[in-house]
Amino acid sequence: MAEEQKHHHLFHHKKDEDQPPVQESIYSETTGYGEPGGGYAETTEVMAVGSGPEHDYKKEEKHHKHLEHVGELGATAAGAYGLYEKHESKKDPEHAHRHKLEEEAAAAAAVGAGGFAFHEKHERKDAKKEDEEEHGKKHHHIF
Asked: Most exposed of 37, 77, 79, 123 (fewest Cβ within 10 Å)?
């Protein structure tokens, strides 16, 4: 019964090594003289082994989209923490300077996370563009 159950876990991904490398014969030549079974004979065969499966741009695009969302989440969290520290600086005047410093640090973290999200958005667009170029997507211009 346990063998029949399918387990759906996060870390059960298909491995690249399960796929055999692509082999393709580029050049083959047989030269020789004399009778079969005797004399001189030479066979030359050149094989090209592919580098494996082609680059998966959809997977790369999904990866960059995920990282973009992580950057957005980081910017949101840092911004919320900055607002909290601003509130604390007003609420606790005795330690206001410390809260102001933490507010500034949170603002810097929010800017950095926002920049990371922006970077990943452009990486995702580049991956999409490369995928379209590789697969020959046609752009239809109306005007």
From this structure: 37
